[in-house]
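call fold(seq) -> tokens
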Amino acid sequence: MALQRLTALLILYSILGYIPSRGVILRTTDKTVWANEFEPIELTCLIESISTNNPRIEWKKIKNGVPSYVYFQNQISGDLEHRAQLIQPANLLILNTSRADTAEYRCEVAAIDDHKHFDEILISLAVRVKPVVPRCSVPVAVTVGTSSELRCLENEGFPASQYRWFRNNEELPQDPKSSPKFINSTYSINADTGGLKFRRMRKEDAGEYFCQAKNEAGHAQCPAQLMDVYDVDIVGIFLKVLAALAGFTIVMVGVYHAHKHGCFSSGKDHTGTNYKSPAADDGVEYAEADEGHFRHKSSFII
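ret:
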């Protein structure tokens, strides 16, 4: 009986020995990978099945549809040279990521001794970039009852930043109605564009304002800027209008007196005549023209 069992096992082992390997098979822990700029990240290319002792391993970077070598002929190349290394058996470690590393990466393994001698896996890497100091626009002074807008923007952060506003170092709630302190405020915040709009300014809205841009990589904020809110100066407006009317009246009186004293008349009076009638030596008196006709004032003397 024992001999029969041994014979059966030998036959089974012999059969299994001639069954070819099902081939090289790859997998990864994550096909979509996020990394913060200037931090390390590892792209996993795990070999689940292989029979070949020394498979050919390659990594390619695909950006805008154009592939380029990252790991080829057992060395790092391209823009990752001196910034990456291969971790056995096939993982790619990027030591110092930059925003330019955002791309797709393809791990390729060729095993000539396997029945299925080639496999590949595609990994998408996105590098998060911390926002820079945003550009903030805060009006210096506004009038009670008017509308106004404060602006905040930065273009470097990735993913796109979300914006928050602070007054006197206290964050403004997204919905003013959600806070008893801001329930009477008329502002609205657009977290995507960074706009802070006041539909109707109040004296209580005065203060120091600053904006913060934030994403998954970090945050940055602009320096605080003071905004004053003034009441409408009715007396001041009335005095300015009165002064303007007084100035206009003075100018018109001056023009009237100047005209009355002849300051605007010309040096010569062209209403009279400056010529003399030719002498009537021949005994003929020439008449003045009257509507294009001659009129005799005296008879011709023959």
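The CA atoms of residues 250 and 256 lie 10 Å apart.
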